Amino acid sequence: MVWTPLHAKIHRTIRSRHLFERNQRLLIAVSGGQDSLCLIKLLLDLQPKWAWYLGIAHCDHRWRSDSEANAHHVENLAKTWGISFYLETANKPINSEATARDWRYQVLSAIAQANNYQYIVTGHTASDRAETLLYNLIRGTGADGLQALTWQRPLTTGIVLVRPLLEITRKQTEQFCEEFKLPIWEDSTNQDLQYARNRIRQELIPYLRENFNPQVESALAQTAELLQAEVEYLEKAAQQLRDGALGVRHEEDSLTPLLPLRLNRRVLQKAPLALQRRVMRQVLQQILTDAPSFEHIEKLTALIIAPNRSQTDPFPGGAIAQVEGDWICLK
C-alpha cells in the first residue's frame, strides 16, 4: 500500500478528534463521486491499523437517467473490495435537495440500525463546509448556520454521523483519485446551475479564489471550525441561563417545557444580549413546529425589559408571551 500525506493526515485526524475507535463498524456513504471514493479508499487503507468492519451504502434518488447504472458501478466497487454493500432506491424521483438529504439520512440510519453499524461516514470536505457557510450566510443566519457541517453529530440512538474529510479540499480529493486511478462516476446534476449550491461551487467560489483569496475554501472552513467551538460554548451557557430563568433543578426538566411556562426576567436581565437571544430561541424551538425566525426571537427577547402587561402577537400555533411582573409567561 502507498502511504500518502493524505493517509497520514486522516489517520491523525481520526485519532486526535476521537472520531472512531478500534474494532468498530463503519457504514460509508458512497455516491461514486470523487469525495466518497477518496474517503472509502483512505478508510480501506487505514483498516488494518484500526481493525474496522467497513460497509458501503449507496442511495439512488432516481433523479438522473443514469442513476441505476451509477448504483451498479458502486456495487461492483464494493464487490471488488470485498465489502458489504447496501442499496436503497427512492420510491419516486426526489427533486429537492433538502428532501433528498432528509431521505438519505433516514435510509442510512435504517441500514445502520438493521446491520449493527455504530457510525455513518460521509465524504463532506472543507469545500462543502465553505459552500455551506456561504449558502447560509446569503440566506441569512446566525453563527449556528455558519458552522453547520460539524465533524460528528448523533443521527439516532446509538448511531453517529462522522465527516473525517472536513480539512481536505475537493481539489485534494480529485488529486488523490487521479493518483490511485479511482473510477469516479461524474454526477451531471453537479453542473446544473438551477441549484444555488452549484452556482456557489461553479461561479462564486472560483470568483472569490481568483479575486480575493486563492485559499478561500480553506479560510472559510477554518472560520466554520472556530464558530463550531464558540456555538457549543454559547449553547451550553444559554441552557444554564434558561434553567435558571425557568427555575428547574434537573436538566431533563428543561428539555421539554410544556405551556404554560414562565421565565424570570430578573435572571435574564443580568445576561448579555447574545445569551438572552439563545435562551429565547431554545424555548421557541421546543414550542414551535418549525424553526423560530429572527423576528420571533427578537419579539420574545424584547419582553425582558418591556413594561408590565406587554405581550406579543401570537406565534405560529397560537402561543402568546406576556409580561407579568418579574415573569415572561408563555401560554
Question: Judging from the principal axes of the Cα atoms, what is the shape?
Answer: elongated
% residues in beta strands: 5-15%
Unreliable segments (pLDDT under 50, ≥5 consecutive)?
none
Percentage of residues in helical conformation: 40-55%
Main-sheet strand order equals 3-2-1-4-6-5
Largest sheet: 6 strands, mixed
Mean pLDDT: 91
Give the N-terminus to C-terminus distance in angstroms: 64 Å
Count of β-strands: 9
* Number of H/I helices: 13
Radius of gyration: 23 Å
Structural class: alpha/beta
N-to-C series of helices and strands:
HEHEHEHEHHEEHHHHEHHHEE
Task: List strands and helices in order, with pairings.
Layout: H1 5-16, E1 25-29, H2 34-50, E2 53-60, H3 67-81, E3 84-89, H4 97-114, E4 119-121, H5 126-139, H6 143-146, E5 152-156, E6 159-162, H7 170-179, H8 196-211, H9 216-246, H10 251-255, E7 261-264, H11 265-269, H12 273-287, H13 294-301, E8 321-324, E9 327-330
Parallel strand pairs: 1-2, 1-4, 2-3, 4-6
Antiparallel strand pairs: 5-6, 7-9, 8-9
How is this structure best described in words?
It is a single chain. This protein is α/β, with parallel strands linked by helices. Helix content is 51%, strand content 13%. It is built from 13 helices and 9 strands. It has helices spanning 5-16, 34-50, 67-81, 97-114, 126-139, 143-146, 170-179, 196-211, 216-246, 251-255, 265-269, 273-287, 294-301, and strands spanning 25-29, 53-60, 84-89, 119-121, 152-156, 159-162, 261-264, 321-324, 327-330. Strands 3-2-1-4-6-5 form a 6-stranded mixed beta sheet, with helices on both faces. A 3-stranded antiparallel beta sheet has the order 7-9-8. Strand 1 (25-29), helix 2 and strand 2 (53-60) form a beta-alpha-beta unit. Helix 2 (34-50) packs across helix 7 (170-179) and helix 9 (216-246) packs across helix 12 (273-287). The longest helix has 31 residues, at 216-246. The chain is elongated. The N and C termini lie far apart (64 Å). The model has no long low-confidence stretch (mean pLDDT 91).
